[in-house]
Amino acid sequence: MSETENSNLWWKNAVVYCLDIETFFDSDGDGIGDLPGLHEQIDYIAELGVTCLWLMPFYPTPNRDDGYDITDYYGVDQRLGSLGDVVELIRAANNRGIRVIADLVVNHTSAQHPWFQAARSSKESPFRDFYIWRSNPPPDTSAEVVFPDQENSLWELDEQTGEWYFHRFYKQQPDLNISNPRVRREITKMMAFWLQLGMSGFRVDAVPFLIETMGLGAEALAGFGEPHGYLRSLRSFVSQRNGEAILLGEVNLPYEQQLEFFGPTGDELSMMFEFIGMQHLYLALARADSEPLVNALKQRPAIPPASQWATFVRNHDELTLDKLPPSQRQEVFDAFGPEKRMQLYGRGLKRRLPPMLNGDPQRIRMVYSLLFSLPGTPVLFYGEEIGMGENLKAEGRKAVRTPMQWTSQPNGGFSTAPRQQLISDMAEDGFGPEMINVLAQRGDTDSLLSFVTQLVHRYRDCPELGWGEFKVIDQPHRGVLAHTCTWQGRAVLAVHNFSDKPVTMSLTLPDFTGHVLRDLFGGANCEVSSSGSAELSLDGYGYRWLRAYRKEDRWV
Ligand code: NOJ
């Protein structure tokens, strides 16, 4: 691929930052973050080095699922601002080299969406078929619900017409019927609207559920052949409207099944979150043994050249461990969330990383260094860059959706509203704003914020991390992961120590015989001998990135 093509595929080595406008920065003192507030802080995001901003749902919503229940796909929740504010934000972000993507939530609407209101009013409603109904009592689906604390069936009886409607998530979120061509037309029209306003694509919610046809078979998607045909058509539509726009999909499935969502030629989702690697990372951390992660990465299938994995440590939901066998999940629970109040839905954790690691700065940095050095495009959830914690008293997933901590002032500088008026309580237990905030860290070159900023910039300097071929380098320490990413004659070697014991190791690097390994974080360089070996040391929880140069190369 030529340099030009490389830069077209900007998502291959982007740095994505996810935030919820309502918890980021409140500009008008009503206790709720808003678009003008985010706009005010855009230089903070730019300074971090982020190249893609993912906005969680900001549409009008009754907020039964943190905005993932939408009543108007063309609007902006009035608590957050206006459409004009969205356009201003996109422009401000673009001016700083940051693309903006929005959550696309079309598996379901809110039950208060006018379509559903019309659909439930009568069986003859022209909107009835926008949703999925059944007239006879449903079977027991309690084992399939996504939120077992709130739901016990995927079907809800609607009294008005005496039929049941299907909802994969909460009952307040009826599933759209994508086998209806009118629904599909509405979806593309709405995507076109946001692309036209300047969005660079979408984070697509719940993709496997979106394209499932509810046992209706292939004819349900007439014209597309099969569900993946529909996903392909969405990608092709998006690309026609905006050649650089992406679909970043949520597909929490085993690798082999995930692969199908890229499409054999990379013509479905552009990127997918790396849920399997993330879950094995936590198992590796719990065991102080890199093996679970190494094994997962070795099984990670090759993907089409323009496709990409979106790597992450934390997202806005429960930290799901659903793809680990129960005994391994229990190991992670024991290590990082032993109390019931720290766990959620029997499959995940309510915590952010720093409290799970008892605030150990070296270990936290090791994890972020690893995140940025693994092949893929890293995604940060707001507040990770300063080491924010959670609020375990908050219900469910709200524990990690606490307001951004800007200063040590009341409400962490997030809002001037009285505390009880805030959209959500602040993080606590030693990780609140008095301990952790942007202002203190911005001026401190030793802070986590400075470290993560440096990681972001080093990652951007090293396209081989996003583009390259990944290889695990064998070495004798179970606690260590050593890997290389190689691309177009360039290579980065990264070494990470999952254990608290310092190690010295000899790495066999036949491809780099006679090269100098230059430490990208200012540590000592090291030479690869003529027999192809290099001696390296790491502190407990140590990490290093080294780039391989021949002596005659320009060291840039
Ligand atoms: C996945 C989102 O990440 C989650 O927050 C939401 O509740 C469900 N999809 C339903 O939209």
Provide a descriptive summary of the structure in words.
With 556 residues, this protein is α/β, with parallel strands linked by helices. The protein has three domains: 349 residues, TIM Barrel, CATH 3.20.20; 53 residues, Oligo-1,6-glucosidase, Domain 2 (Oligo-1,6-glucosidase, domain 2), CATH 3.90.400.10; 83 residues, Golgi alpha-mannosidase II (Immunoglobulin-like, Sandwich). The protein has 17 helices and 22 strands. The strands form five sheets. Strands 1-2-3-7-8-9-10-14 form an eight-stranded parallel β-barrel, surrounded by five helices. Strands 15-16-17-22-19-20 form a six-stranded antiparallel sheet. Strands 4-6-5 form a three-stranded antiparallel sheet, with no helix packed on it. Strand 12 and strand 13 form a beta hairpin. Helix 10 packs antiparallel against helix 11, helix 10 packs across helix 12 and helix 14 runs parallel beside helix 16. The longest helix is centred in the middle third of the chain and has 16 residues. The radius of gyration is 24 Å and the shape is globular. The mean pLDDT is 95. The site of 1-deoxynojirimycin has 8 residues, from loops.
